[in-house]
Amino acid sequence: MSTVTISASDVNKLRQQTGAGMMDCKKALTETNGDFEAAIDFLRKKGAKVAASRQDRESNEGVVIARSSADGKFGVIIELNCETDFVAKNAEFVAFGNQIANAAVESKPASIEELYDLTVDVDSTTAKIGELIIDKTGKIGEKIGVSKYAVVEGEKVIAYIHGNFRLGVLVGLSANVAGADEAGKDVAMQIAAMNPVAIDKDGVDATTIERELEIAKDQIRAEGKPEEMVEKISLGKLNKFYKDSTLLNQEFVKDPSKNVAQFLATVEKGLTVTAFKRVALGA
Question: Which one, 13, 115, 148, 244, has the greatest CB density within 10 A?
Answer without folding.
Answer: 115
